[in-house]
C-alpha cells in the first residue's frame, strides 16, 4: 500500500510537538513533511531537523506575541506544489496557514484543520475571525483537537463528532518522572511572567498559606518575563512569610529536578488553551491546583481525583493548598493519580490522532504519484 504523503504546516520546532512528528513519521501509512514558519524559539537548542521525514523552513515575517504569533509567507504555496501532498494539515489561522489551506482547496487536496483552541479562548474573537474559521471548517475533511474543549469548539461550528480526532498536547513523561525527590519548595510556579499567567496571585496564595500554617512558605518561580520586577515587589510585601526564589528560564533537561523538589504546582492562569507545564508536573507526581480557565481543567487535572480545580478565589486556593501541604495521605493519592493519568497523554497517542485524521481525510481517494485524485 502506498503511503499517504502528509504535509503539516506549523509554527516552530517545539519540545512538545517535535517528538510527535517523529512518532508520526514512524507509522507505516504516513510519509511526513513538516513545514515550519520559523526556527525554534521555545527551546533554541531544538533545531527541528530529522532523518525520518522532510523538514522545510519558510522565511517571511514572524512576530511572536504573548498569546500567539503572526507569520505571512506566500512561498508556502510554491513549496506545497513541489511536495505534492496527499493531505495538508494546518495548525491555525494565520496568513501562512490560510495560504496553505487555499492551495489545498484549489488543488482538490484534502485539508485537515488542527487546533488547540477552546470555546473560552476564542470568545473574544471578531466576526471576521469567526467567519474565517467557518470557511476553513466547512471545506476541511477531518479535524484534530488538542483536548476535549477543542472538540467542543469544532462542534460549535457544526463539525460532525465522528470527523474529530484527538492529538493531545503532551511532554516527555519519562524525562519528568526521572527527577530525584528532594523537597525544597512548598510551591512551584512555571510559565511566562505575564499578566495572563497571574503570577502575583501565586505569591498571595503562598502568603495566605504561610499565615494559616504559622511558618515561612517557599515558592519557586521557573521562567521569565516582563513582570519580574512586579513579582519581586510583591514578594517584598510578604517578607518573613514567603521565601521566593527564581530559577530563571530553563531548558527542558534541567526542569525535572525543579519539579522533584516541589510539593504543589500552582497554575492560576486567567486563560490557557491547555498548559503543557501541567503535563510535566503530573509526570513528576506533583499535585496541581489549577484555575478552570485552562484546557487541562477537568481533563488532565480532575477535582478531587488528582488535584484541585478552583475559581480564582484566594481563600479557596489557600484552603486547598493547606490541605495538600498538611495531609500526606491526600498528597500521595493525588501524586500517584497524576502519574497514572498523564500516561494517556503521550507522543504516541498524539501521533495516532493525526494519522487517523489524515487517513479519514483521504478515504475514498485514489492516491497516485503522491497526488489525490
List the helices and strands and how they pair.
Layout: E1 4-10, H1 18-26, E2 30-36, E3 54-57, E4 61-65, E5 68-72, H2 75-83, E6 87-90, H3 95-107, E7 111-115, H4 127-138, E8 142-145, H5 148-156, E9 164-166, H6 173-176, E10 185-190, H7 199-213, E11 217-222, H8 228-236, E12 242-248, H9 255-260, E13 262-267, H10 276-283, E14 288-290, E15 307-309, H11 314-326, H12 328-341, H13 347-362, E16 367-368, E17 371-372
Parallel strand pairs: 1-2, 1-6, 2-3, 6-7, 7-8, 8-9, 10-11, 10-13, 11-12, 13-14, 14-15
Antiparallel strand pairs: 4-5, 16-17
Strand content: 15-25%
How many strands?
Answer: 17
- SSE order, as H and E? EHEEEEHEHEHEHEHEHEHEHEHEEHHHEE
Strand arrangement, largest sheet? 3-2-1-6-7-8-9
Task: Give the CA-based shape.
Answer: elongated
- Helicity range: 25-40%
Main sheet: strands, sense, barrel: 7 strands, parallel
Unreliable stretches: 366-373
- How many angstroms does the end-to-end distance come to? 16 Å
Question: Structural class given helices, strands, pairing?
Answer: alpha/beta
Average of the residue pLDDT scores: 93
Query: What is the rounded Rg?
Result: 22 Å
Number of helical stretches of at least 4 residues = 13
Amino acid at each position: 500500500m502506498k503511503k499517504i504523503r502528509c504535509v503539516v504546516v506549523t509554527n516552530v520546532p517545539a519540545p512538545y510537538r517535535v517528538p510527535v512528528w517523529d512518532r508520526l513519521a514512524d507509522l507505516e501509512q504516513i510519509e511526513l513533511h513538516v513545514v515550519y514558519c520559523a526556527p525554534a524559539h521555545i527551546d533554541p537548542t531544538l533545531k527541528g531537523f530529522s532523518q525520518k521525514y522532510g523538514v522545510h523552513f519558510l522565511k517571511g515575517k514572524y512576530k511572536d506575541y504573548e498569546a500567539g504569533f503572526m507569520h505571512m509567507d506566500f512561498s508556502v504555496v510554491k513549496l506545497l506544489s513541489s511536495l505534492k501532498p496527499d493531505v495538508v494539515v494546518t495548525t491555525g489561522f494565520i496568513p501562512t496557514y490560510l495560504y496553505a489551506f487555499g492551495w489545498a482547496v484549489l488543488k482538490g487536496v484534502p485539508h485537515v484543520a488542527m487546533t488547540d483552541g477552546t470555546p473560552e479562548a476564542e470568545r473574544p474573537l471578531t466576526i471576521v475571525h469567526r467567519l474565517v474559521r467557518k470557511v476553513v471548517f466547512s471545506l476541511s475533511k477531518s479535524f484534530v483537537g488538542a483536548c476535549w474543549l477543542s472538540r467542543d469548539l469544532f462542534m460549535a461550528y457544526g463539525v460532525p463528532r465522528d470527523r474529530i480526532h484527538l492529538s493531545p498536547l503532551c511532554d516527555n513523561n519519562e524525562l519528568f518522572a526521572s527527577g530525584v525527590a528532594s523537597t525544597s519548595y512548598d510551591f512551584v510556579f512555571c510559565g511566562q511572567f505575564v499578566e495572563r499567567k497571574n503570577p502575583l496571585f501565586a505569591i498571595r496564595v503562598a502568603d495566605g498559606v504561610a499565615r494559616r500554617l504559622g511558618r515561612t512558605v517557599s515558592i519557586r518561580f521557573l521562567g521569565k518575563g516582563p513582570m519580574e520586577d512586579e513579582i519581586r515587589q510583591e514578594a517584598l510585601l510578604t517578607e518573613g512569610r514567603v521565601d521566593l526564589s527564581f530559577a530563571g528560564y530553563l531548558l527542558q533537561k534541567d526542569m525535572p529536578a525543579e519539579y522533584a523538589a516541589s510539593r504543589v504546582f500552582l497554575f492560576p492562569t486567567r486563560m490557557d488553551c491547555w498548559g503543557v507545564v501541567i503535563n510535566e508536573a503530573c509526570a513528576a507526581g506533583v499535585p496541581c491546583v489549577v484555575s478552570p480557565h485552562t484546557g487541562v481543567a477537568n481533563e488532565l487535572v480532575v477535582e478531587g481525583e488528582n488535584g484541585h480545580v478552583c475559581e480564582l478565589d484566594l481563600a479557596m486556593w489557600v484552603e486547598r493548598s493547606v490541605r495538600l501541604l498538611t495531609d500526606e495521605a491526600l498528597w500521595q493519592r493525588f501524586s500517584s493519580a497524576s502519574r497514572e493519568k498523564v500516561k494517556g497523554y503521550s507522543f504516541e497517542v498524539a501521533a495516532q490522532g493525526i494519522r487517523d485524521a489524515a487517513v479519514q481525510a483521504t478515504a475514498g481517494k485514489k492516491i497516485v504519484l503522491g497526488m489525490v485524485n
